[in-house]
Amino acid sequence: MPKPFSKAEVDAFFAALKKLNPDPKTELNHTNPYTLLVAVVLSAQATDKGVNKATEALFKIADTPAKMAALGEDGLIPYVKTIGLYKGKAKNVIALSKLLVALHGGEVPNDRTALEALPGVGRKSANVVLNVAFGEKTIAVDTHIFRVANRTGLAPGKDVRAVEDGLMAVVPDVYLLGAHHWLILHGRYTCVARKPLCPTCVVRELCRFDDKTEEAPLKPVKRFGKLVSRATR
Fold it and tell me: What residue spans define the domains of the chain?
């Protein structure tokens, strides 16, 4: 097992990520808590880019639970059929929309238990909505965060709940609101699965990963709206 991060190291870890991207945001396009919830449900086992492409037209005609419920599964499917598992997701989106109208006055509840009671909404999805829509200090552990937490040694765990609990225990309160986004974006663009871009990593010196890559940086790419260097094999 790698040596656990000290409090100072954890602080330095997130300070570096914040310096790189001071105002991190979700990459799922949305206009209100409801469209965020729908986008999150659709994003399971799909890319944010693919979801955004599908919801661009969808949210122009159905941006409330009532409008979505009126659309129905048959009306929704043509908009989301490019997304994996679209039939099941369409069923869940219509069902959760009807429940929001019936039980919550057409509003997305700021409550974990109520969110997780909705079809297609698990703990990770609820954490995203609570964090992004309501400013709650939650961490939604997806495949990127799971990889970063284990690879770096920041908060290793056998499963996503263990990693979530580990992160909630070590991340300083001042960074908790943005931690979810910093870790996802770091895993998505730098600490990638197959060939991590270690030479350009801002937390390289803190990371416990033994097999760091050593490639030379190539041409810059745009990340978070600005140019940064990247490395590849």
Answer: 7-23+139-228, 33-134
Do the Cβ atoms of 176 and 231 come closer than 8 Å? Answer: no
Q: What is the CATH number of domain 33-134?
A: 1.10.340.30
CATH architecture of 7-23+139-228: Orthogonal Bundle (1.10)
Which is catalytic among the residues 49, 124, 137, 211? 124
pTM here is 0.88
Rounded to whole angstroms, how far apart are CA atoms 103 and 81?
Answer: 28
Summarize pLDDT for 171-214 with one digit per residue, the tens.
Answer: 999 999 999 999 999 999 999 999 999 999 999 999 999 989 88
* Start-to-end CA span in the chain (Å): 28
CA proximity to 116, closest of 108, 129, 126, 106: 126
Reply yes or no on whether 142 is catalytic. Answer: yes
Helix%, strand%, coil% for the chain, nearest 5: 55, 5, 40
Both tokens of 214, joined, read 């050593």
**Which residue in 230, 220, 229, 226 sits closest to 22, CA to CA?**
226
H helix or E strand, kind and range, residue 117: none
Q: Is 7 a catalytic residue?
A: no
Catalytic-role residue among 142, 159, 210, 219: 142
